[in-house]
């Protein structure tokens, strides 16, 4: 996928808050959440920490703004994968392809931007709000909508629908963390691609309680590999 690096914008009078967020996002990109501090962001922008504290009460408030920015970039990566999809006529195939694309975008962002990915999920995560309060642009909402599409298509049985999105999320997130901070960190690109492909295949079969027919297996394999 293309680089999702935050673009540095020069500081303009009256826009210091956004300049600090952009600078802090670059710090997170390079060094993860622990690198985000008021002093470091102020230094990068070329202002004093005192000036920065007029916009952020402290380190935690700045970090929350960067977490929001990281989530926006994660969502953009998922949208990029979704935009590449061919629109299948079969609703089940369409829903499964969306699920695979979401997983692809999530996983590739994690590996391409580990600092921002870790920052997005750093400590102090707020409890999950009711789904009615989750914005359409939220990456979790995209996953829920894809699972709902599978239920509406009759692929996902009603008894398997509750909490199904969390099973899918946990599988892809766990795979990403195994590659970032676990025993899969030194695997080859081909091994990473195969691991994601197999994870998506198993999620798809688990949701439907079926063995995927060959044409769906091939479709998901292609989407999981970014095709």
UniProtKB/TrEMBL annotation:
Domain HTH tetR-type, residue spans: 14-74
Annotated region of DNA binding: 37-56
Annotated GO MF terms: DNA-binding transcription factor activity; transcription cis-regulatory region binding
Keyword vocabulary terms for this entry: DNA-binding, Transcription, Transcription regulation
Residues making up the signal peptide according to the UniProt record: none
InterPro entries in the record: Homeodomain-like_sf, HTH-type_TetR-like_transc_reg, HTH_TetR, MT1864/Rv1816-like_C, Tet_transcr_reg_TetR-rel_C_sf
Pfam family, one: TetR_C_33
Keyword Isomerase set for record: no
Name this protein carries in UniProt: TetR family transcriptional regulator
């Amino acid at each position: 996928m293309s680089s999702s690096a935050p673009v540095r914008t020069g500081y303009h009078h009256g826009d210091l808050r956004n300049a600090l967020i952009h600078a802090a996002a670059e710090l997170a990109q390079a060094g993860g959440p622990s690198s985000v501090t008021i002093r470091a962001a102020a230094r990068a922008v070329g202002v004093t920490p005192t000036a920065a504290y007029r916009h952020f009460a402290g380190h935690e408030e700045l970090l929350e703004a960067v977490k929001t920015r990281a989530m926006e970039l994660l969502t953009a990566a998922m949208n990029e994968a979704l935009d590449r999809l061919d629109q299948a006529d079969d609703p089940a195939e369409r829903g499964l392809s969306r699920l695979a694309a979401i997983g692809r975008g999530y996983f590739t962002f994690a590996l391409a931007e580990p600092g921002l990915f870790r920052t997005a999920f750093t400590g102090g995560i707020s409890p999950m709000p009711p789904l009615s309060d989750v914005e359409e642009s939220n990456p979790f909402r995209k996953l829920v909508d894809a699972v709902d599409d599978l239920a509406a298509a009759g692929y996902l049985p009603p008894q398997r629908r509750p909490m199904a999105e969390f099973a899918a999320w946990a599988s892809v997130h766990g795979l990403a963390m195994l590659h970032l901070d676990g025993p899969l960190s030194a695997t080859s690109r081909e091994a990473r691609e195969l691991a994601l492909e197999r994870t998506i295949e198993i999620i798809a079969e688990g949701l439907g309680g079926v063995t995927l027919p060959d044409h769906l297996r091939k479709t998901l394999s292609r989407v999981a590999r970014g095709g």
